[in-house]
Structure formats: structure tokens, C-alpha cells
Amino acid sequence: MKRILLAMVILMAFAFQSKGQTEEDALRYSFLDFGGTARYNSVAGAFGALGADLSVLSVNPAGMARFKSSEWSITPQIGLQNSTTQFTGNDATNGHESFVIGNLGVVGVIKAAQESPTLWKSIQFGLSYNRLANFNERTSISGISDTSMSYVFAAQAGGIHPDDIYESLPFTSGQAYDTYIINPGDSSGNYYTTQMYRGEFNHQHTIARKGHIGETAIAMSGNFNNKIYIGGTIGFPSIRFRQEKNHSETALSDSLEIENFTYNEYLTTRGNGVNAKLGIVILPTKWMRIGAAYHTATKFYYMKDNWSSSMSSNFKDDESYTSNSPDGSFLYKLKTPGRFIGSLSIIIARKAMISADYELVDYSKSALSSHPFSGSSYSFSNENNTGDINFRATHNIRIGSEINIAGPLYTRLGFAYYQNPYNPTALENNNAKLTYTGGFGYRVKDFYIDFAVKSSTWTKDYYMYDPILVENTPIRKSNTNLSFTFGRKF
Prior knowledge:
Elements: H1 2-15, H2 23-28, H3 38-42, E1 71-87, E2 90-111, E3 120-134, E4 137-145, H4 150-157, H5 165-168, H6 173-178, E5 182-184, E6 192-194, E7 201-224, E8 228-251, E9 258-285, E10 288-295, E11 298-315, E12 320-324, E13 328-336, E14 339-348, E15 352-362, E16 367-370, H7 381-390, E17 393-406, E18 409-418, E19 433-443, E20 447-460, E21 475-489
Antiparallel strand pairs: 1-2, 1-21, 2-3, 3-7, 4-7, 5-6, 7-8, 8-9, 9-10, 9-11, 10-14, 11-12, 11-13, 13-16, 14-15, 15-17, 17-18, 18-19, 19-20, 20-21
């Protein structure tokens, strides 16, 4: 059942390749990680009830009301990504390094005069940029199989006359026909055959991705009697994504005329959206903080994909062929799900704290839709229905602690559990994403320096092409992120 569902998804992606958007894209831009300052990262993002950190503008804006003085900070980050795969018993490893700005922001505090009778002790205005997802990664797959991606091209082309195949399928089967990888089985094109019809084939497959989701947040908060803190944020998230896939197969049988073929896919996506966040933090006692926040669904009112592909083939008679697709583009809209976050923090003798956040996100609520300026009325009903079936609501937990070990020195630890957004019926590997964090800080009256290490591991199912033809290739991913924050109060 799982392989049938996945086959439907992948064949649908081929069938609608003239538009290119699938429910997998909606999930990619909905699945956010915790990110921001080094202090926030070092406690695994468990900061919803604590506040006084620039990261909270994208989590619980009520925490901004905990600032007692104006402040700015900047957080450079180094990312180290590694992917390991196993296909038909063959292991492959690849990785990627990146340098980014994880957080940048400023908060201004306006305090009420001491003689004022108002119970509103202060208000805050904040502006920050937080990086909420990183797409930088590189994955390689290699191994020998007795099936070929060319079978997918041949099946897709069935029923299309050879004279019309490139115009009908310029990004896939049209190129396979132009490069003689597939040939019509009869003059009408009722069915097609492939040059790779027997034997085994050496597969080499690479996925290279770059990009991020970043959010610029404008926030306002207020401190009521040092007991109740409220805040709101208008967020302006942006998506920048680039992907290149390279798939090559070499025939290992001497009886075939073809030697090898290569198929390359290129995709870039840009998107801009808007959302809102509301939050509250309550101090029922001096040693307890309770927080809650609600994030509205993000409306990406502008999403644009640009894509192209190319294919080449080499034959044993020294003949070679190449084919390039036209440039494809499509304008559409995307809605990613809202979130609820509940938080609790315990302060111990003013020397330590333990904090936890619970986050509820329903990924089946993500949805693609047509853009009025796209010139298309395509409804995305198939993609959205598939997302409803394959995706689910997740329950995510973040736990962190901080100890003041001596004077201005602090040490921190954290752990995060992110439930897999796929329904158990949709995937073979349904493992959660686990993240371990740690760090330390140096904080004095006017400035602070924080450092964090964040290490995540998870496994993702991946099929190079139709799951009915090729076996699953589990991708075991590990990301290590090093953050360094410098902040100054004024």
C-alpha cells in the first residue's frame, strides 16, 4: 500500500511536470526548524515562556516584553551537513558546508515614568530577521539495479504520436525520444520501448540543494505590572530554494547498443508571504513562567518556480545525442499551516532554569492554489488531496536548561523532538527528527557573547523514480550547526 501511494505521488509529479509543483513542495516550505540566536539554539529553542531574546519575535512575541533595556544582536552560523545512503548494498556519502546569518535584530524599550500610576511598566518595539529553515545539502546515491528510469519515460510517452512527443513532454519523455533512449513500438506511438531493455545498470544519482526560509519580523509588546506580558508580530517570510538533480545510468550488458544516459533537472523557487503571531507570558510566581502563542497560517501570496532539464546519451557505435528543454516557469500561491505553542519554565534559586515548549502543527493543512496573474486556472486538487492523505498533525517537544556557573558565565543544554509529518501508512521510515544542543555564554551589564552547537539526525525515504520499479533509498541525514552571537544593550 505504501509503495502504491508513493508511486501515485511520483507519477503525478511526472504527469504535471509542465507545472512542477507538488504536495512535497508544500511540505518542504511548511516544515520549520528552530533557529535564531546562539542562546536560543543552545536550549533547543525552548524559549516560549522565557523571552528577552531576539529569537522570540518569531516564536512568542510576548517574550519581547521581558526586555528591560534596548538591545541589538547579530548571529553568524556555520552549517555542516552530511548525508549517507545505501542503494542495493552500496553506501555513498556526501556533504555540504555553509555560512549564514541566523539572526539579526534590535529591540527598543520605552519605560513608564516611575511616578506614573499606570500598571503598564514598559512597551517594546522590535525588528528582527530569523532563519527558520536551511535547505543547504548534498546527497549522492550509487548502486546497481536491473531497472531503469528510462522505463518511466517509455510508460509516460505511451499513446502520444512521435511527432508530438517533444511538444507534449518537453521536460522528460520528449528528451528521451530525441536522444534515442526510447523508441516508438509502432508508428502511432501507442507504446514505446527503451534501449535499456535487459541486464543491469549502474546508477549514479546526486541531489544538490541550496537556500533557506527567512523571516523578517516586526513586533510590539507590553509589560503589565511585571506579571503579564503580551505581544504581537507581523512576519514577512521569504523562500529561496535551488535544486539540481543529476541521474546517470550505465548499461553493464555488452549486448545493448546504448552505453549510458544522463538526465539533469534544475529548479529554482522564490516566494514571499505574510503571517501574524500573538503571544502571552504569565508569571504566577517568581519561579514559574507560563507562555502560549498562536501563529496564523502563512499566506505565500507570491511563489514562482523556474525549471528546466537536459538529457544526453552515448552509444557504443560512438554516436552521442543531447536534448535540452525549454525554460519552464509558473506563478502560484501557497498556504502553510498555523501553529500553537505552549510553554513552561521553572526558575531555580535564580541560578538555573528548566524550560519546555510544546508545538502543534497540522501539515495536512498546507495547500497550493493558482495565482490570478498566472494565466492558469489549475486547481491543484490532486496535489492537495494527496497531501491530506499523506501528511498529519505533529506534536513537537523542545526542552532546555541554563545554569549560571559563576559570575557572568552560563552553560546550557537542550533536546528537541520533531515528529515526522508523514502518516505512518505513507512511508517505510517514519522516524522523528532528533536534535541535541549545548552551549555557553558570557554576559555582563552592557554586552554578551553566546556560543551554541546544534546537532540533528533523521532519516528520509527517497525513490530515484517510480517506487514500483526501484527500491527505497533511505537517506540518513545529520546536520551540525555552530552559532555565535554578539549582543549589546543600550
